[in-house]
Amino acid sequence: MPRFSSPVGNGLIAVDRWTEPSQAYFLTHLHSDHTQGLSVHWSRGPLFCSPITARLLLCKFKGFDASLIRDLEVGTTHTLSLISPVTGGEVKVRVTPIDANHCPGSVMYLFQGELGCVLYTGDFRWELTSERANMSKSTLLDALNGEKVDILYLDNTYCNPCFSFPSRKDAAQQVVDIIEKHPDHEVVIGIDTLGKEHLLLHISESLKTKIWVWPERLEIMDLLGLDELFTTDTSQTRIRAVPRYSLTQNNLESLNTIFPTIAIMPTGLPWSQNSPEKGAYTVPYTAHSSFLELEEFMKVIRPSIIVGIVSSSYCLIDPKHHFGEMCGVDNCSTKGHNLFFKVMKGSHGFKVRKKEGKTKVLASVQRSGVNIVRKERRGVKIEECESDFEVPIGSDCSS
DNA sequence: GCGATCAGCT
DNA sequence: CACAGCTGATCGC
C-alpha cells in the first residue's frame, strides 16, 4: 500500500485519500484499496460519492456518521464552494461524477473551475461496445464542452499493449460455455466483496439458475436489488460464487474429493492461465480498461498532464510512456498552478520485491498450496518511497 | 479489549 | 506477479 509523507497540508480536495486534512473528500468506489484510512469512526469532513456507493459504504462501515455523506447524482454537474488556501477567498468548483463502469456505484470525477480542469478516472472500463460506457462518454464530452483537461489521473492498471480483452459480455458467455460443458459438475467462481455482478447475472439468466453466495455477499446483492437471483442455500444450485482468495488449487482438489468440481476465475491478469485438465479455468473478464480502450479514451481526452494512479512492478504501465505523444508538450511540469488536489495513487502499492533467480509464474488458481514460491524467494525487499502526491493546478500562484 | 498498522499470502 | 482482499501478529491505548 502506498505510504505518503505530507509536507504540505492544505489540500482542498482529496480523492480516495482519507488520512490527511482536506476540505472535501471524494470516493470513487468502495473497493478496499480505495478506502484505506476510512473507517466507521472516520469524520474528517464531507464525503462525496455516488448514491449507490453511499449505501454500500453504510453497509460496509455500519455505524458510520451518515450526516457526513453527500451523495451526488451521477451524470449531472454539482457546484462546491471551497476556501482558497492562497487568498482565503471563495473557490467555486464544479464536479461531475460519471459512471466508471467498474463496479456498482463506481464513478470518475471531473473537476472544473477557474482553477483548472482535472479528471480523475478512479478505476474504470472504457468499453465502448456497451451502452453504459457510451453514455459516460456523452456525459464527459457534454461536461467538458470543449474545455481541455489540464490533468488526467488515469486508471493505468492495464496500460501496456500486452493487455487485450474481449468485452465483458463475450467473456461472460465464455463462462457460460464452460459451465454448459460440465453439466454434472459443481462450479465455483472467484469474486470479491463487490464487482462482477453482471457476470453472475448473465450466468443466472442463461442457465436459469440461482447462484450461491456467502451471507455477507447476499447482503450486498440485496442492497443492489439483485437478491432474488442469489441464495445462501447450497442445495438450490450447483453454481457458487466464492471469495477469490479461497480459490486455490488445494481447495479445488479438496472439493473434488467430495464432488466433481470446476473452478472459474474471471480475471484480466496475464499470468493466470487455463488448466482445464485440472478443472481450473481462467476467463478474461475484467473491470479495468484494456490497452486499446485506454488508447481510445486518450484520443478523446488528450490532457496536458497525465498521471497514472497505479504502479506495478510487473511490466511497464506508465501512461506517459505509451501516450505521452498524445498529450501536451508539457506533460510533466506542474509549475504555475495553485489549487491543491490530493489523490490516492498506487493501488498496486509501491513495494518492490527484488529477487535473485527466477520464480515460476503460476496462476493463483493453479498454484500449489505449498510455499515453494516463497522458498524460492531470495534477495532484499526494497521500499520505494514516493513523495506526497499533490498536483497544484490553476494559474495565480508562483510557487 | 479495541483499533490501527503491517507482514504475509493468494 | 497481485485486479482486491483476507488473516494474523503486534503495538499503543
From TrEMBL:
What does the record give as EC number?
3.5.2.6
A Pfam cross-reference name? DRMBL
Q: Which GO terms describe its molecular function?
A: 5'-3' DNA exonuclease activity; beta-lactamase activity; damaged DNA binding; endonuclease activity
Q: Which domain of life is it from?
A: Eukaryota
Q: Which reaction does it catalyse?
A: a beta-lactam + H2O = a substituted beta-amino acid
Q: Which GO terms describe its biological process?
A: DNA recombination; double-strand break repair via nonhomologous end joining; interstrand cross-link repair
- Signal sequence annotation: none
Q: What is the protein named?
A: 5' exonuclease Apollo
Where is the organism placed in the taxonomic lineage, from the top? Answer: Eukaryota, Viridiplantae, Streptophyta, Embryophyta, Tracheophyta
Q: Give the UniProt family note.
A: Belongs to the DNA repair metallo-beta-lactamase (DRMBL) family.
**Keywords, sorted A to Z:** Chromosome, DNA damage, DNA recombination, DNA repair, Endonuclease, Exonuclease, Hydrolase, Nuclease, Nucleus, Telomere
Q: Does the keyword Nucleus apply?
A: yes
